[in-house]
Amino acid sequence: MKNENKYPIKAVAQKTGLSVHVIRAWEKRYNAVVPNRTETNRRLYSESDIEKLQILLKLTDQGHNIGGIANLSIDELRDLVEDRQEPRMENYKVQREVRQPTDPDKYFTSCLKSVYALDLKELESTLYKASVSFSQPVLLDRIIIPLITHIGDLWKEGEIRVYHEHMVTASLRGFLSNLIDTSKNSESAPKILATTPQGQLHELGALIVSAVASSEGWNVTYLGPNLPAEEIVGAAEQLNCKAIAISIVYPLDDYMLRKELIKFKQILPDNISLLVGGKGARGYLDVLEEIGARVILDIANFKKSLSAIRENKYN
Amino acid sequence: MKNENKYPIKAVAQKTGLSVHVIRAWEKRYNAVVPNRTETNRRLYSESDIEKLQILLKLTDQGHNIGGIANLSIDELRDLVEDRQEPRMENYKVQREVRQPTDPDKYFTSCLKSVYALDLKELESTLYKASVSFSQPVLLDRIIIPLITHIGDLWKEGEIRVYHEHMVTASLRGFLSNLIDTSKNSESAPKILATTPQGQLHELGALIVSAVASSEGWNVTYLGPNLPAEEIVGAAEQLNCKAIAISIVYPLDDYMLRKELIKFKQILPDNISLLVGGKGARGYLDVLEEIGARVILDIANFKKSLSAIRENKYN
DNA sequence: TTTTACTTGACAAATACTCGACAAGAAGTT
DNA sequence: AACTTCTTGTCGAGTATTTGTCAAGTAAAA
Question: Residue A102 pLDDT > 70, yes or no?
Fold first, then answer.
């Protein structure tokens, strides 16, 4: 058994939500928890000390007076805790069973309709429903990505107005950032940074990339669109990222963007991979080759590159 | 296996957010991290050195005293780190709502720290906790709005880099769009559209506006930044909005923006109110008067205008 | 030369410790 | 209902320890 007296009083206070005053008072008055001390008389608590304090807090919230329960053992305390009602599994089950196997395409067209109608509520609730019915890959591949590319096409052809595109972006951004959920993947997962280079205001591509990378177990930081090369690299370095993913949508050939991309050659460290995707990437193949970037043509391709980088075949 | 000792102390300071003084002090006093040296006695840190320092910093924020943890191994340290993701709701809600340092300022400074460290996870989890502990107005007035204005100031003074500002934007956007939650307010609630005019890429102001309006019971459609006047009005008309809120941050006087604003005079229907806010709005008072816009100076002001419009005293 | 990094020693602010006191509320008594 | 008494969270004063910061002098780099 390890000697686990590792927590100073401040950490205990933060973990339990008690104030340091109260922790000391409980010790002095009732010997609720008597921690070991360092040579210089500082308190050092063990994990079970903390657990006991947590239970005591819960019990006092439930009406017990601290003086009466403080000197009980952990086991005795546990018996006192009223267990709250069980999680409501039934609800979930019912949903699952009732749900009929539907076609992703139906959701897709339904989303599209909402976009035309500028009906945000409808769009979001459809997306939400879809996210319950389908796995994340299906959701991405069959609904969200088609939706985005379709919107992109319509926009280029002038079939829809700018505000349509903005609305979809805003809406999907919210939806996808839920999907990404930074806290999901562990600290130790490899990190990737997603953004678009300066001048590129269309961020949906970068959002897709973020969602895919997240579902592949990466730790994604999404920085929004329109960042200069130095900033992208600076952020990637500070975050210790293994890779940078940038998305280029439009236009197909832009002198400024070309200049912006070339900057990467100078400032990108060896141990960071650069992935470039999006419809617009084709227009810059020569520059991309020169700066040593990987060009991503589709999602499958992107996933492959991710796992290659992860296994250090590259970098 | 390359044992890469390639980071000089300055780089380490930038990556970790610690000062060079502190890094050296930790080495001298506790041998926290003992880097290799060049032939001329300069420190050269490895990646794992940096990682250890980052973990140490996080742990000190979590209440550990540096002297007590500095000589632990990386693995031992990792075990100590709180991976606070699964708040078992029962514990959390009951405890946190009642107890905890109920000081919004603490959350504010804690958020600011996370921004400096580029620690998205930490930032979002702090915001989440704050949203549990405080009412929405307090959350907005005491934490989020100060955070945004502070970031804005730092940015203007060149104290932080562009990617800091982007990170906060991306993160807050996700967070606020949850807060706004389009489906919350009823169909019959008055509608408002929030955005920024063409050329204005800073969207945080518009996001605040959205959050406030939503908490006042409006039905908010957030269209993201950088929309031409025709598009804004077009969208407002199609959505049957009672009001349009646009945010101007910077620069204080821009010819293009002036032109953009004047367009509203031509195309804005009588039954739609135009509200203009943000630090940058002061620079355009003359134009704004001409186009019949309401200038919003602060949040209280904004709320008043909203209820006035709602009651049809105006429009 | 000017800037940056290194070491050492010193200082001051922050933090933790003990003890004692106070006040609001709960519980018991008249 | 009014009055004790008890419980318990909070605070302050005084002391000790911990820790971030800085200055001075030297060495290396630009």
Answer: no
Closest by CA position to A213, among listed A307, A141, A130, A276:
A307
Take residue A183 and report the two structure tokens written for it.
Answer: 């806290």
Sort strands B243-247 and B191-195 into parallel, antiparallel or unpaired: parallel
Q: Please, is B217 exposed, middle or buried when counting C-beta atoms within 10 Å of its C-beta (0-12, 13-18, 19+)?
A: middle
Fold of A186-310: Rossmann fold (3.40.50)
The Cα of A55 is separated from the nearest Cα of chain B by a number of Å equal to: 10
Q: How many CB atoms lie within 10 A of CB B57?
A: 18
Nucleotide closest to A65 measured between CA and C1': D7
> A12 to chain B: which residues are within 8 Å by CB?
63
Q: What separation in angstroms does the CA of A150 have from each of A117, A128, A142, A161, A219?
A: 16, 20, 12, 14, 28
**One-letter identity of residue B12:** V
Helices B89-98 & B120-133 angle (0-180, nearest 10): 70
**Which option is the CATH number for B181-310: 3.40.50.150, 3.90.550.10, 3.20.20.450, 3.40.50.280?**
3.40.50.280
Question: B294 in helix, strand or coil?
Answer: strand
What's residue A97's pLDDT?
41
The residue assigned the tokens 């979809």 is A168
Residue A16 host element (H or E): helix A9-16
Task: Determine the Cα–Cα distance for residues B10 and A274; give it in Å rounded to an integer.
Answer: 25
**Which fold, A9-80?**
Multidrug-efflux Transporter Regulator; Chain: A; Domain 2 (1.10.1660)
What is the SS3 string spanning B148-209? Answer: HHHHHHHHHCCCCCHHHHHHHHHHHHHHHHHHHCCCCCCCCCCEEEEECECCCCCCHHHHHH
Residues A125-170: tens digit of each pLDDT: 888 888 877 777 788 878 888 888 788 777 777 777 888 888 888 8
Architecture of domain B101-178: Orthogonal Bundle (1.10)
Question: What is the average pLDDT across A76-85?
Answer: 73
CA distance A205 to A32: 56
Residue A60: burial class (beta carbons within 10 Å; 0-12, 13-18, 19+): middle
Q: Which fold has domain B5-80?
A: Multidrug-efflux Transporter Regulator; Chain: A; Domain 2 (1.10.1660)
Beta bridge partners of residue A195, listed in sequence order: A246
Name the nt closest to A30 by C-alpha to C1'.
D8
- According to DSSP, residue A226 is labeled -
Q: Which residue of A has its CA nearest to B61?
A: A11
Residue pair A223/A175 in contact (Cβ under 8 Å)? The answer is: no
Residue A153 in contact with residue A107, Cβ under 8 Å? no
SS3 at position A274: strand
The separation, in Å, between residue B24 CA and nucleotide C3 C1' comes to 20
Determine which helix (DSSP H) or strand (DSSP E) holds A27, and give its type and residue range.
Answer: helix A20-30
Q: Report pLDDT for A86.
A: 46
Q: A229 with A263: CB under 8 angstroms? A: yes
Per residue in B126-142, is it b (16+ CB within 10 Å) or e — as a string? bbebbbebbeeeebbbb
Determine which of B62, B103, B223, B231 to mutate to test the interface with A (most A C-beta atoms within 10 Å). Answer: B223
